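Study this protein:
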Amino acid sequence: MTLRDTPLRVPRFIQLHREDAVDTRAELAAGLSAPAASIAPKWFYDALGSRLFDAITELPEYYPTRTEAAIMAAQQAQIAGSVGRFRTLIDLGAGNCVKAGRLFATLQPHRYVAVDISVEFLRQAIACLQREHPTVDMLGVGLDFSQTLVLPPEVGDGPRTLFYPGSSIGNLAPDAALAFLRRARQGSPGCHLVIGVDLVKDFATLHAAYNDSLGVTAAFNLNVLPHVNRVLGSDFDLRQWRHVAFFDESASRIEMHLEAREPLVVRWPDGERAFAAGERIHTENSYKYVQESFDALLRAAGWAHTRCCTDERAWFAVFCAA
């Protein structure tokens, strides 16, 4: 039987995460009402926001995606050797599933589990991947893994590899990253981990990556406001806000904010917030590590046998751990 004749498996989907509208609005209102206003970065990713982020990854200034892909391509054999033989590849924050798909030929998983906050976003991506790999059992899981990493029984038993690419771990403060890495280890005892980490580099490169000349990152940041308007019932006006991103060397992180262009008031049901000109809403952090500090973080979380693969410039790292 040829590959063309192989019966196509049908991906399965499980939605574990359910948004509670009241709690969601309360969370957004609390962030906007805090002394230092904030909006969690998960609100970037409505349909338009997801497409804008895909566009960001194609920008010449945005090095992380292509640098990580180059490391994965050049060092697939080393990564495969680090994780050994396993049955299930669990892709955390799977998105369009492309990054995991590139590793299938080398890692050869029997089962692929794509985890994201909504399975609706995963349906088309997994369907495409299933056509390319008809013999692999595929499962989409809708889960807010920032809160829990307890996976459903349908994931099955046997050795697992957790895959968390894209330097998304950098969105968490170091103490939160430590807690996440501990949950990951405790949720899948005996598993391996492959994780992408952005490294500290020169200021100009970091600044340009979050302030691209086309303004796509600015559009991505600003797009959070209409999303909040739809969810919270607020009246943000995009014309009153500008994108601000900078590197805080003392904290070793990029910060993204939205800055009020003028004095204004934002209203929502049962609440409002006045902003002075120049006042900001904090939307995202992206922590940058040195190799030694992230290795120490992994070990503090209980991971061992760590291995670090980097590009020639040491701009980005892919860590493997057991």
In short: The mean pLDDT is 93. The two ends are 37 Å apart (CA to CA).
